[in-house]
Amino acid sequence: MRYQQLITHVTELIKSYNPIILTPDSHCEQYIQENCKKLFDTEIMFLKQVFSGVQRYEEFLKILTKIMFTLLSSTTNRNDATLYQIFSYLILFRLDELPYNEFKKMVNEQDPVKMNVLLQFLFDIDKIITHVKPQWIEIYDPQYIQETVIGGLEQHFPMMKDLLSSLSSRATGKQSELVQEDERPESATKKQPTKTMPFKLSETKKKPDPPPPPKPEQYKSKPVPGNLNKKTLQQIEEDNKLRFEQSKKKVQETYKDAKQFEFKTDLRPTNYETVKKEVEDTLNQQLQFNMKIAKPAPVDLETAEIKLNAAAILREEMLLKKKQEIEKERVKNLEVNLRDSGEFEEWKKQQEEQEQIARMEHQQQKKIEMELAREAAMRAQEEKFKENRILAEKMKVEAEERLKERQELQQEQVAYKKQLIEQIMEADKKVYLQVEKVQEKNKQIAEDQKLEMARLLELKRQEDEQIRIKREELIKQIRELERQPIKRTKGYDPTETMGYGLLEEMSLAELRDRLEIVKAERKAEEEDKRKEIVTQKDEYLSSMQRKVQEIKAHRQAESQQKDMEREAKRMKKQKEEDLKKKIREEQLLQVQNKISNKKQIKSAEEQRIAAEVRETKLRQQYMNANKAMVEMKAWKSQQDGLEREIKNRQNEKLIVQEGVESVNLRERKILAEQAKRLVKAKVDFNQAYDNDLKTAYQMNDQLHLEEAENRTQMHNIQREWKEEHTKNMITRDEYKQKISEVSLKNSKKKQQITKQDFSRQLEQLPSAQYS
To answer: Which top-rank group of organisms is this from (predicted)?
Structure first.
């Protein structure tokens, strides 16, 4: 079947359908009559069923494609929505009726990237349940969706693994993630090393085991000095400072009586101090950055008049009109409703101010609570630090135990891996025979491909020769047609019409006259238009001047109003700052009082605890009188408890040891049986391999004998053909044969003569020269 052609017909059939014009059946029949005359009955039935199925489940499939486009927007194209709907319908509803091989061919003929995206999304059950199922349930029964649709996908997934992996490798060059996830648990449960089966060949001698590595010498550290922990860091710093002062004083005393060297230049008069003072004064003057401005900014400045362009004038006029309309609307409401919204706005401002004050008080209160919480957090942090220190000590002990266990496990793994490496290295040495077999097989395949390629090239050459012959015939026919005489036409008259019988048909002279009339009419229209434009410009300029005057008056009034509003806003801001300052001072006083109260309570609690500790110490001193008797009884009870604990531990260890020995015995039995099975399987494999190798050698010898016989037979055939060919040539042309025989005789005679002449010349030469 031509699946690519069928899918294209189905997509065109769905895209060209318009439910307003035709019914589905009539549209399908019309399309088949126009475009599908060469299709078989089964293919036409496929078109009808897929078209009707897609129309029936249109909402269902649109939900699926819409979610796929949103989740996979980078790898999908919305122009392929019809293609995705067709294959989604076939997979979800008709896959049981389609044979798997036919469906696989249908998918492989499409673009692998598009089909990979669709199939990976459809068979990802988690995505379908989380994203698509909630919207499907809105239009279909939940039980139908779960059992029929999603259950069908889960049922067909094992069959589609091969197709999914092949599409993924063609589209992305990687294996499908769905197939890897499905196969991962089985590999995790059967995680065993690969068992190699060695060939039955001569084994190499094992190398001697390397000597054991020398034991590392244990480093014995020196004991800690006794005076290390007696001093604190503060005491050490104080000692260093004292030592520094003593050394400083000692140096000063040694050089106290030393005479300083005097220079004669120091006795000369100099103005160094005055020059130094002048330079410092100039530098200080340059570095005075906080000086006042020389010229203060002018206060009363005349406002400069801004020249407006046409766009600015129109923009200002539009704003002015909007403000005037708002004012008119307000006056109209006042006339109709007999009330103004000014009082409401004033009340609204007062309420907002009160809310602002309450908000500020709430913020200050939150700051107080945060300060108190900070102190509580600091105390909790100290307690947590103590708990963490105790917990860290416990974790260190546990970590040391785990480290010992891990080291033992690593040693076992290293020994096992060494044994496995030795087995693999022995197996790698015996692989070369299989490599030779594969190379011979590849050579045979290459020879077959060469023969097939030569045959195809010969067919292509014959086809090209036929095409060339047809092309030469066509060129001859075209040249014959070009040699025929061309019919000449008569001269052209501009006053005559062409005589084609068209409406408004005229000659060239009449056309030119009409063109001149049209040009004159257009010139008159242009003059009228120019006059109209001049009048419009004058009106526009006058209106612009009037608008500028209105804008100036409006701006002046608005600037006065803005100045008043600015002053009111400044006063309001000053009041708010004073109020904030007052609230902040009150809240700070409250915070200070609360903190001081908490400190007093804490100090009283500490004093109470200290008094209780002193009382308990006194009680312990009174109770130490009978301490000897109490210690004797406690020692006896401890000894009895230790004996009981030792007996219990001994019994428990005996029970555990018995269980371990029984488990070890069972394991040894299982390992012995497994070793027997491995040995038996190895012997069977070696026997089967020897038999296969023997038959392969026999077949190879037989092939060599047949090849030698074929070569001798071909050589004999070649020699017989050559002899027969020479006989035929002699009988066909005896004259040429005689000429060739005569020429051979003459050449032999000439050769003998040249040899004799050369030998004579050698004899005539002197013996010394010859030697």
So the answer is: Eukaryota
